[in-house]
Request: fold
Amino acid sequence: MNTHEFQAKQILRKYGIPVPDFYIASSSKEVEEIIKQYQLQSAIIKVQVHAGGRGKAGGVKLATNPQEILEFSQELIGKKIINEQTGPSGMISHQVLISPAILIKKEFYLGITINRELASRVLIASPIGGINIEKIAHEQPNQLLMLPIPLEETFRSYHLIRVASFMGWKGKQIQEGVAIIQSLVKAFKETDASLLEINPLVETKEGHLLALDAKLSIDDNALFKHEDLKTLFDPSQMSNNEARAQQFELAYVALEGEIGCMVNGAGLAMATMDLIQYHGGRPANFLDVGGGASQDKVAEGFRIILSDSNVKAILINIFGGIMNCETLASGIIEAAKGLEIHIPLIVRMEGTNVEKGKQLLQQSGLKILITENLTEAAQQAVQLAQSVR
Ligand code: ADP
Ligand code: MG
Reply:
């Protein structure tokens, strides 16, 4: 689960990491109130979307007087950001972060993520942070230090000295920087994060370290432990279908093809997509309704697939393992009856009680094409989708 910059900053602050003051506004009225209440004369205004690279996409603006603070905020509230990180459909900023503009002497990068090759959490540090960090990582890898975090979850002092000297921190900055690293490690662990980064961490005019931007992604599988963090979820940053799928605990990814797929099991869903592709079609989505797919889930799966106007046929590929085919077939029938489905429905079913399951589908009165095997199902789906077009 991704979070917004302001939410990540609230968490950094809770762990004692210094961040500049910030205010959140989602309307002109709120902006005006903030300007008045805090007597703001200048500020940085930033879109709040679940993606980085906002600066380069025109989502970060420096306002040098109160009038500009209002104007730029109005411009950025409701702005759609489109970049590599948002994907082609972009993300809309429903609110802006207003923060004092800081005089920056130097920008650093500091982040923690999980390195699967090392099977470890790693600290990544760079003395050249800021909006070009991806380019620097690519072109000057020697400007990046990657340090696995020890199992006991705290760095030894020689690790910390190494980072401080790599960053070029001097005097009081060493203490400040080391404290920030230790707090970051603690925050990463306690929020069950998969990514927690500060970019840029800056040296201010006075020589202090300050986190000007923050990004936090939390491991979805750990959310059940964190009632407080769950509330940070913002469905507006996902496509409608993805948000609905998440609500029904369906694993759904929208794709660009014309054959809607409803499958129980992620591996089976991948194989289904491969076969559709192999026979000349394109899957419209990945959808795993889960091993024990309930009728509610199947119905929601249908609704999501049908809301995609590119879909010309639906291929249902069911393996009755955890649930038997009979139960799954009645789930499909009940779900389909409640909806108006005007496109071909192709079913491949295999597993426990398969004959009974197929019989139920045949007698349901629904227009369902029951196929003998997966290859036939994929071929039929491709062919029927083309004939609809
Ligand atoms: P993103 O990483 O999404 O582009 P940032 O919040 O990092 O967004 O902003 C981009 C750049 O804008 C930063 O690298 C920094 O140079 C500058 N910036 C951000 N916040 C401030 C601030 N409060 N004061 C001064 N400059 C800022
Ligand atoms: Mg940034």
User: Anything to note?
Assistant: The pocket of magnesium ion (ligand 2) is lined by residues 52, 199, 213 (CB under 6 Å). The longest strand covers residues 104-115. The radius of gyration is 26 Å. The first helix runs from residue 5 to 14.
